[in-house]
Each structure stands twice: as structure tokens, then as C-alpha cells.
Amino acid sequence: MSALTTIPADIACLADYRRYAEQLLPSPAWHYIDGASADELTKQANESAFARWQLIPRVLSGVTNINTQVNLLGQMHQFPMLLAPVAYQKLAHPSGEVGSMQGAAAQDIGYILSTLASTALEEVIDYKQSADCWFQLYVQPDWHDTLALIQRAEYAGYSALVITVDAPINGLRNREQRAGFVLPAGVSAVNITATQSPQGLQACLNAAPTWQTIKQIMASTHLPVILKGIIAVEDAMLAKELGVAGIVVSNHGGRVLDTMPASVMMLSLIRQAVGNDFLILCDSGIRRGSDIFKALALGADAVLIGRPIMYALATAGPLGVAHMLRILKDELQLTMALCGCASIADISTKHLITLQT
Amino acid sequence: MSALTTIPADIACLADYRRYAEQLLPSPAWHYIDGASADELTKQANESAFARWQLIPRVLSGVTNINTQVNLLGQMHQFPMLLAPVAYQKLAHPSGEVGSMQGAAAQDIGYILSTLASTALEEVIDYKQSADCWFQLYVQPDWHDTLALIQRAEYAGYSALVITVDAPINGLRNREQRAGFVLPAGVSAVNITATQSPQGLQACLNAAPTWQTIKQIMASTHLPVILKGIIAVEDAMLAKELGVAGIVVSNHGGRVLDTMPASVMMLSLIRQAVGNDFLILCDSGIRRGSDIFKALALGADAVLIGRPIMYALATAGPLGVAHMLRILKDELQLTMALCGCASIADISTKHLITLQT
Amino acid sequence: MSALTTIPADIACLADYRRYAEQLLPSPAWHYIDGASADELTKQANESAFARWQLIPRVLSGVTNINTQVNLLGQMHQFPMLLAPVAYQKLAHPSGEVGSMQGAAAQDIGYILSTLASTALEEVIDYKQSADCWFQLYVQPDWHDTLALIQRAEYAGYSALVITVDAPINGLRNREQRAGFVLPAGVSAVNITATQSPQGLQACLNAAPTWQTIKQIMASTHLPVILKGIIAVEDAMLAKELGVAGIVVSNHGGRVLDTMPASVMMLSLIRQAVGNDFLILCDSGIRRGSDIFKALALGADAVLIGRPIMYALATAGPLGVAHMLRILKDELQLTMALCGCASIADISTKHLITLQT
Amino acid sequence: MSALTTIPADIACLADYRRYAEQLLPSPAWHYIDGASADELTKQANESAFARWQLIPRVLSGVTNINTQVNLLGQMHQFPMLLAPVAYQKLAHPSGEVGSMQGAAAQDIGYILSTLASTALEEVIDYKQSADCWFQLYVQPDWHDTLALIQRAEYAGYSALVITVDAPINGLRNREQRAGFVLPAGVSAVNITATQSPQGLQACLNAAPTWQTIKQIMASTHLPVILKGIIAVEDAMLAKELGVAGIVVSNHGGRVLDTMPASVMMLSLIRQAVGNDFLILCDSGIRRGSDIFKALALGADAVLIGRPIMYALATAGPLGVAHMLRILKDELQLTMALCGCASIADISTKHLITLQT
């Protein structure tokens, strides 16, 4: 089946997009997109962890205006959310990364393009409007390839580098393997050459970036550098010491190493360790505006949305992405209003409680 | 299908009424009535939370008389329970609010009429017998409309105002949206005019009541004022300071903001904070007489029953409501007898234990 | 279908007897026997609670002889288990209480006959062999009826009175009500007259025994008196103070008041409160020899087995009861052997651990 | 059906082998192999317990080489894993123990042969390559039979004795009994004579080894002696005091006594009690390389793999075993790489966290 051209009336939340995408996508692509590592326990934990915190609303608060702006890296974002750098978006819809960028732009939401995008990075950023566009970097085995990618991204207008550090080797994608997934014709990582991908554990480890590599990159670009994929408190502290602009607390949506804790479970531990003057983003498992509210309360400055991009693209292309983002915006605003928070700065752990039934 | 004219022999408890209602109601109405906000986690928590406390019965206690009377706002109620102000009761049965009032009157149970009743408030109270009848108020965008409603309620004979403060904006009723629910012909909020309902977040927030509004209402009526929808301990204390007559600890049956804690989980925290000399009612999730017993033990003076009104109306009209209330009365009396409590004042946390299996 | 005449090879444990009984019994009788009060949460808790304690076996212990004898009320029992006083056993099998007595006698297991037995108490005890036979007493509304029952039991040779104190009123047997259960022709409480059963809450409470009644009974019989149905620690202490011979920690298999804690959860609290020199039996939820082991470790002197009598009777009559009891004996012996316990006195909480996964 | 001759593409992990084995094996053999004692709660706990610990990965660690070698009893093993002594392997595949040995040898993994092997112990060790081969001993009722077995094992070249101490009597294999399992023609314990197996509890206890038996064995052989089946901390300490070479913390895969704790739950308690200078192996429930990582972090020097041998043999014979072991090797290496552990010695509880959602 192919994607729909209007939004069905029975799509009320992100889970509904997932339901549609499962129907509309070929099975192997579906399992590649929806699947995760091994037994997918981390993926499940990501989504269920948010229920651990209950919301405490406030009544009669007199809040009449909801302001969701946040300042990230010196730029004002209308909303504390960016699209995560999801690979191969043409798997979900022919419009691919251009489609998701159009959806993001329509909602004034920031965008992060993956190194493994199926569209040329220069083409995607053409559709950028006012919200920022960042580039996600997989360090390449050859330093010159890495440098070339950085320079292309800079030149094209990407305003930050998000270096993924949690996936030096491929995860155990058992579900994907069982489904026999291979990239279909016409979908490939067009911004790099195939020979750049190391094969096998040893080759991957040889090519893996180190703290030294990050230093080298920081010295080679004027772009702010964010490290994506931090879970250990110690790594968050090392990142801050190194002087990077920020981190993304993330377990890669559970796609790399199974039985890692839910990202959001590590957030407050990491925020406590690094202090308040350091940019922390968070991803993995956010499916509701209330999840965003909770992540912010627990220490995140903003969040990234990953798989739902693909669910929405698969269902209704760019229109789907825009609508999906609109749902999240509405849900966050409603949560803020009911909790008596007029601005992002008002969101704190005072609005959360953890009561075990 | 239409409602039954006798009570089927296999209705033994409130869950049985829910089962029948699901069969008898048109699907959209069913999902409007039974549904809740977003993923309905709060609705589920409301119902499952009571199992957290186990009952410790007492034997050979010599109790030979069970007295369930409570004094609420200076009036003696035969039972520590009122019907909650459920909107649009004609959705469940043609008799609507008159039907539920007849059922309540037959069992001598107090009644709260919703601003969004589908029957004129003057018509409903005509069926009042000895038990009290209160009016639930949604503050209207225009002060004069609010005042007019209050005066109509006073004039008609309602003896308290229950102001709902937890729903300044509509909840995310995902299930209801998917089911395509709209009010059918012949069912509407006949006590207000359509133009009084604000549309959209901004309009809702502009029209939302504040603590100042409550003060203004208290100055405009001789009726005691109860605030419905308190979850935060701080809001309970503010309410008491303002001088209202009481509060309803409630999350609106999970219909407004999902992932709020179960109402009953907040009860003892709130009772502890406000002290014993302040009226606390509680609703959300009460389906058994033992649930009423537990809510009273945890600090409530009385409870409200919501959705079961609709389940019972849909199943067997006024007769169903009367029977449903009778079941709750019998169940509470049995629980009191087995726990050795001759009167409501005897019910305390000494009869509860929380043992985790 | 009627009961089997041989034990099927696929009956390996008590749960298998339950499975067969469900197939073989008429549905209303099945739901009467297997059902419990309200939502049956206490019944479920009774069975699942045992998994809370894990067994710590001991190796190379040198135990070569397993002795399961216990002294109860001055009599040596070959096994720390008695058949509980289950009512109306002819519902399960035409042999009724005689059948279960034959099964118990074959395994040298003690027996407690219910006041609500469907067979004359004199007839049942005719089948007694070496193991003790006790009589369970429901106090009757008229003292002379109570006294007459006691004297009949004494005269017939029952050697203890087990007075049930936790069921002054009938439980909310919702499942039984939905199934439309009534006693079939030929099954009735032949030891009492129908007029002795009070109807309605008030009549039940008027007829309910008190601590004073127990004193009166103790003064009227030379038989040792055991109170069955104690859950509150305070009631256990009152019972000991009154001078009864012992108690049964029991929630009546979850048949009276739902959401009571599992019996076994209260055991160690009660044992700690009353000290070691007081007889404590325990029932509700025991389905494995390892459950017996755990109950003894937590403070019970012996346990009662209830519903499994009916499952086994329904499946294969007296033979089924004997085999069911044999399974429990084998399972307890195996558990003792693997835990290095040569005798009942060796069983203690040292063999238990509570590790949460 | 018979075993496959190639590895199906949809086998990505050990659970996939289990799925295939269930399809390929006759039902009774399947239930014998896959089943466990009683309600199989311990078996389930073994597998689910690992999820209690979440992995904390480290990024940018600079690890470029993964060394999985461990020294066990003075011999270097390429991998901290051995095949557990699973009985009657011809049930799974005609190649039986020879098949599993071939698979182990192909992956350079150590091997433990069961006393209840369905192949002569001399024939199996013929297929040994560089990795060590140990012999599992069930102490026989007659000391001369025991001694003869030990001497055969020594003479054949087995380099350690693993004495199983947790199964002096047969477990309650309810599932196996219901399935009517009996050893099929051509599968038997060829290394012992049938008359050596005691029948019944008393005979089993009479024949059961004691601490004295272990001393006697240690005095009769130059082979290092390991005790398999230790769960109690006290038994671990007694074993160390006696001077054995090591222990296997194991609950026999849940096949002996149900409701024992998961083996891995006892690991750190036991390691803490016996100190670091004592060999501890662990089995029961390991199905992932990450499980091995966690067991090592919690105190094991190496682990044993049991049922998966049979799953893999049944699916694809020796090739299946080799592939199954290869999966575990790859998974452990990946886990080590992502956690920044270059060697087994780097694995510690610092890489684990226990966060409850």
C-alpha cells in the first residue's frame, strides 16, 4: 500500500501513526524501522518508563498564555523538540528526508539530518525555514572522509554537529534479521560511499571514534559539537570537561545494546552530575507531549523525536510529519496549562510524583 | 438495543453493569462514556489503586447495628456517597438526569447535577426527595452567565455549589475521537447556550476561572462552595485558606490529563495537610463498597460515583441506578460489619494494611 | 459427566485436579466451589503469595530419613495437614464427606467436618481410622441448637471444635450468583435445620457469635476449641488471652471479604505476636508441598487443605482425594529432603529468602 | 521432522533455536528437555532475572581489541563459557554428545560430559580439540561404581570432576509426566548400568552423597573437584572450607526444586561470602551474551550453557551447536566493546545499574 494523502480521522496520537505505518509499510522495512536490539527490552523500557512519574496538575492558576520557547545553542526554538537523525527516511516515504524537513518546517521545529540520510544533505536543507538544522555525524574510518562531511555540512548551512558516539558497532537487530531486511533499490546513504562502512567487529572498533577524535573534530570546525548517545554519568562529565556544547542522553531507541536503562531514567542522575549550565537533550521513547514535559522536568533542555517521524512519513508523507508534530505541540501545551506552567522554565520536578500502586 | 426493563440475574456488581452497558449503547456513546484521556493510564490507576490496600477484618466484634450516616455541610446523609455530576446523561438513557435522580432518591442518596446536564436543572430537582441535591458549576466565559446559573440553581433548591476546577480545557479524549463521537440529536447542554463554550486552548485559558473567580462566586451566593478536581496538596491548602466549604479530590475519572496519580493515592497526603476539620470528598475509580470503605479510611468524608451511573442508566434506566446504588450500600455495610465498624467514624487506617506480594 | 474411576496419567499436581474438576462438574456447582468473593483478588493473592518466598536448599546434608510427624492438641499426626471443613461435599461427588474421609483415612491425614456437611456427622466419623477427626462449628442463632450440635459432635467422637468466626454473614459471591447456583436436590446441610440459617444482614449480625459466645462454648464442652478465620494480629492475641486451644489463620479461601491479604502474609506477624507456645494452623491457597513447607517456616504448626478436596472428589471420588493428599505428602517430603530438613522442627525461615526480580 | 542441514536465516539468537526445536522434536522429548520442576517458576525466574540489571555502556573508550580469555583451573579458555552436562543428548539429535562436542570444539569452547550421557565417555572425548573437557559425576549408590566411573573419566582424559550435589532425588517434573515421557529406544545412560539408579525417596536418600563422600572422592582422584548445584551461601562456604577447586552456582535449570531463586540472584551474595580467590561458575537461564557479561560482573568466573545445547542440536546438529555458541561469543564481544571492556577482568558491577520502572 502507499501512503495516504489525507490524515484519517482516527489518528489522535502518535500510537495511531504507528498502527497505520505497520499496515502501510512492507514487512521488512517495518521491522527495520520499528525493531530494536535483541529482545527489545530497552525499547519497551523507553516507552513505559514515563509512566513511572505521575503528573501533579495545579488548578485556578491564572495562566493565560503558554510559551514553549527555548534557547538552544544561542538560537531561540519555538518548541523544546527537534527531529532526531533517523537514517534512510526514503524507506518510509518517497519524499524521505525532504518530506520530514517539510513537516518540521511547517511546524517551526528544529531538524537533525543523519549521516545515513537517503537524500543529499544539500538538498534537504534547501527546505529549511526559520528553525535550525543540525547535522548528525557518524565518524568515518578515514579522517579525510569525516572532515569532508563536516565541511559539506558547514557549507550547506547546518548550524551544529551532533556526533553519534554510542554505535561504534551495529546492534544485534534480531527482528530485522529475521525479517530479512535489506535496503531496497533506490534507498542508500547517498552522502557517503559504501566503502566507508567498516564490516565486522574488529574493523568497526578500529574505525571507532575516541575522545581524541572528538577533540580533533572540535578543532576542525566552528560548529558547536553535541555528543549523542550518553548514558553513563561518567561519560556525561567527561563530555562536559572536554568542552563540547552539549549531549544527547540516549540509548539510540534501544537499537544498539539491549537491557540498557530507559534514557529518561538516567536524565536526572546526569543533570545532577553536570549541573545546570550544560545543554542536555534526551531521546528514546517520547510518544506524548506529557513525556516531553516529564523529560524537561527531569533535566532535559529539549527532546528529540525519532521513530514517530517514520511512522508519520509512512502514513501520510510530509503532511503526516507536520500533523504528528502538531499533536505533540498541542499535548505539551495542554500539559503545561493544566500544570500551571506558563513557560518552559516553570516546568520542574515539583509537578511530578512517583507513587507505586 | 434499548435498555432493559428488569435487572438481569447475572448483574451482581458494578462491573456487570459496565458489561451490559457496552452491549446496549451505540459504540460512539459507549466510548465517550467509558473512555478517558490519552492512553487511559490514570483511569486504569483509579480502579486498580484500591487493591494496594488490603482489608483487615475483625471477628467476634459484637457489632449488631451498622450505621452509615454522615453529616455533610450540616445535613445528615444516610450514606457517605453522592452521585457525581456526569454530563449528558440522556446519552445513556432517555430518562437522563431525571432517571438518575429517581434512582438516587429511591435509595436516599445525595445527587449532584452537572452544568452540562441534558435536562433542565429545575426539572431534575422536582424529583428530589429527602436527600440533598447539589449543583455542579462550570464557570462560564461571561460572568453574567455564571451568575445567572448560580441564581437559577439557588432558586431551584440546590443546596451547594460544586465548582469544577480541573478542566479549564478539554482533555485529550483519544478514544472518543477515534470513535467519531458527536452529541446525537436531542442531547445537549440545555442549561447553557452553545455560545458559552470557548473553543481552542487560548479561548479556554482566557475563560478559565482563577482563585479570584472563586472568591467572587463565594461573595455572590449564600450556598456553600466546594471545589472539585483537587490533586495537588498545595491546592488543597489554598482552598482551605480561601474558606471554601470543602473539596473533591478527583482527577475527573482520568478524563482530563493522563498519567495523573489515582485520586485515592493523594487522599491521605491531602487529609494530613489540611487537618480533620475540612470536608474532603473523593471520586474516580470507586466500583465496590470496599472501595468506599478504603477511601473513608484514608481521609474522605464521602465519595462520588460517576461512570457507574451511566452504566446503570444504559442498562436499566432509573431502576438500574437504584439497584446499582443498592449494591454499593450492601457492599459497604458488609465491609463495615466484617471489619467490626458499627459507624462511619469507626473506619480508620487500622483496618488497612499494605503488603506487597 | 461423572467422576473417573481411575487417576488419569496426566494428573501430576493439584492444579491438574482443578482442571479435571472444571470439566467434570456442572457449571453452577463448579463456580460455587471454585469461586470466591467479589473480584476474587484475595483468592488469587492466596495462591500467588507463596511465590514471594524462594526456597534455599541445602546440599550434601546427610539427611536420610524424613519425619513429617507433628503433635497437635496432644495427638501425634503423621503429617502437618488436615482436610479443611468444606461444605456440601456431595456437590462434588455422591460419596460426599464420606468419600473425602475415606481418602484422608487412606493417607492417615486428619479431618475436619463442616457444620454444613451434606452427610450426617455420625455417618462420616464411622470411616475414621487412626488420624484425628475434628468438628467445625457454625454458631447457630439459637444457643440450644448450638449446644445440641456440640454434644452430637462430642458424642460421635470428634476430638476438637473448630469454630468459624470470620463468616457471620455471607460473602459477596458474585461469580456464584452470575452462574445461578442453588443447592441441587439431594444436597443439603443435613446436620442442621433450614430454619437455623438467618437471612439478611441484620438477622445475621443478631445471630453472630461474640467473644462471649466463645467463652460460653468453652464452658459447655470438654473439647479443645480452635477459632478459624483470624487475620488481625489483635484478634489472634485476644484469642490466646481467652484461652482457646489455637487458631486458624485464614481468610476463608477468599470467599467472605475480598481484598483481604493472603493468609500466609499474616502468618509471621501473628506468630511473632502470640509467641511460640500457641497452636496456629493456616489455610487458603496451599496447592503444593512447598507451600506447606513455607507456611510451617513462617509460623504454622499445620495447614488445612480446602478446595482441592472438592477438585479431587469431583475428579475421582475417594481415590482422587487419597491421591491428591499423597501428592502433597510426596511434595513436602521432597522439599524437606532438598532443604536438608529431617523433621518438621528443622523447618525455619533460614530456608526462605525474598529476592525481588 | 528431522533436524535441518543448514542454519535457517531467521535464527538470530538462542530463543530462535528454542522455537525451531519445539517444532522439530517429538512432543514428549520436547517437554522433557524444555520442562522443569512443578510450576516452572524457577525456570522462568532464571531467564527473567537478568533483566533486573541494566547495562551502562561507555562511549569513545578507545577499546580496539576484545580479549575474552579466562584461566580456569590453570588452563586458558578462549571464552568464559562451557557446555553444561546435559543428559541424554541423543534425544535431541542422533549425533548426541558427539555432536555437541563437535560444535564446542569448532568454537574452541570447553565441554562437560554428563554421567547420564547417551554416548560412551571415551567416544565423546575423541572429538576434543584444544579446549578442556570435564566429566560430570553423579555419585553412584555403590562406592565401587563411583570409583570406576572416576577412573574411566581420568583415564579417558577428562581434566576435572564436576560433582552434581543438588539432585539427590528426582525433581517433580510435572510437565514431563503429563507428556508421558519415557526414554525412547536407543537412548540410555550407557556409561552406567540401569541397576545403579535408586528408585523412591528412601533409596535416593540412602544413596545420596554427603560432605564426607566429597572428601572421599577428593582423596581418590588427582582431578580437581567442582561442586555443581550450590545456592545456599553456607554451602558455598562449606565447599570452600573443604578445599574443592570450585563451585557451580546453579538451581539445575529449575529442574529439581521449584521456587528456588534464580541462580544469578545468589551470585553476588556467594561471591561476597567466599572472597575472590575461589572458582565460581554459574548456570541456569543464560540465553544472551549480555547475560554472560552480567553473570561475570556479579561474580562468576565463567558460565555453563545447558538447554540451548539441546535446542541447537535438535535444530541443526553439530552445526547448530557451533552456530549457537558463535552467537553467544559475538553477543558477549559486542557487549564488552560497548561497555568499554577490553578484557574479562574489566567487567564489573560498575557497568550495571538496577533502576525500577
From TrEMBL, chains A, B, C, D:
Binding positions for glyoxylate per the UniProt entry: Y32, Y138, R173, H252, R255
Segments forming domain FMN hydroxy acid dehydrogenase: 6-357
Names of the cofactor(s): FMN
Keyword set includes Oxidoreductase: yes
Listed PROSITE patterns: FMN_HYDROXY_ACID_DH_2
Origin superkingdom: Bacteria
Pfam families noted in UniProt: FMN_dh
Keyword terms of this UniProt record: Flavoprotein, FMN, Oxidoreductase
Catalytic residues identified in the record: H252
Keyword Oxidoreductase part of the UniProt annotation: yes
InterPro entries assigned: Aldolase_TIM, Alpha-hydoxy_acid_DH_FMN, FMN-dep_DH, FMN_HAD
Residues the record lists as binding FMN: 85-87, 114, 136, 164, 228, 250, 283-287, 306-307
Coiled-coil spans in chain: none
Molecular-function GO term, any one: oxidoreductase activity, acting on CH-OH group of donors
Recorded family membership: Belongs to the FMN-dependent alpha-hydroxy acid dehydrogenase family.
UniProt-recorded name of the protein: FMN-dependent alpha-hydroxy acid dehydrogenase
Organism name: Pseudoalteromonas tunicata D2
